[in-house]
Amino acid sequence: MDNLKAELLRGLWYVATVGSDIAPGKMITKKLMGELVLIGRDAKGRVFALRDICPHRGIPLSYGRFDGETVQCCYHGWRFDTSGTCTEIPSTHEYQTIDLSKITCGAYPCMERQGLIWIYFAENGEAPAEGRQPEPPMLPGFAENDGPKLAIIQPFDCSVDHAALGLMDPTHAAFVHTSWWFKKNGAKLRAKVKEFAPSELGWAMVRHKIPPQNIAYRYLLGDNVTTEISYRLPGLRIEHIEGDKHQVLGLTTITPIDEDHTEVRQIFWASMGWIAPLKPLFRHLMNVFLGQDRRVVIQQREGLVYNPKLMLINDADTQGRWWMQLKREWTASGKAGRPFENPVKAKTLRWMS
Known about the structure:
GO terms for molecular function: 2 iron, 2 sulfur cluster binding; dioxygenase activity; metal ion binding. By secondary structure, the protein is of the alpha+beta class.
């Protein structure tokens, strides 16, 4: 956590993009986990992910063309199917014998679930079924084919560790999230007491009732509104809010671009069908809030370049400690070939915010 760069965890599924960003027959290129990745959707709507480097001369395949079935390199016309296998080398003479099935650009396991495209980055070349996270998680409250209502993305000029620590920090809101329409002059700090418990690959703030003074929740979702917030590897913050009438799911994804650059998404699902006209407003507010988090981690980087010793305190920074403990245990258990053992223990945390 003291360093500018972060260890990138493998053997896990990462959110690469939102499914609606890629139409059938289209592809995009991204740098994820320090690797160039070509993500596409074939003519039948199936998603795939390839290593975005042609094995012939090393040029990115994303400069080429995609016909809905194969990607053609722009340099010499080599073609690759959606599994990464070479299907054509135009320069091959009729007397040459080349086993195309042995030529591949490389592919990543890729799955679309709940409107998100997930990519698996293996630890040692294993298939997900052979690894420690066989498939992406199912997010609570919504079906596999339910896509999000709204999503934004912002690049964070910091490591995944500092992005995660900032986003899970429970005490910064009164000082960072201030606007003319929200906490304009700061806010009076109030005592918070929350119960936490271990959950799959992370921990959760145990489901609890929303305070009655939060009238907006009751208006939108009905009575008896409760919420649960969970964090899990490799970088997911999941907030599930339920009322008698409706529910909302908020997902923040923290995906490494490389060791010291990260992309952060905020994504929302909602059971209410009337929010479409309000999307521009909601998108603006989401970008403002996330932009405030982004600004402060960029400012923080000015001090981190001097490699200071960071002094985390109990309770307010306990979740940051849990994050690093989870990462260390994931790495250690993988190297030892043993099952992952969640190091988080049930605990009551108290802070002012």
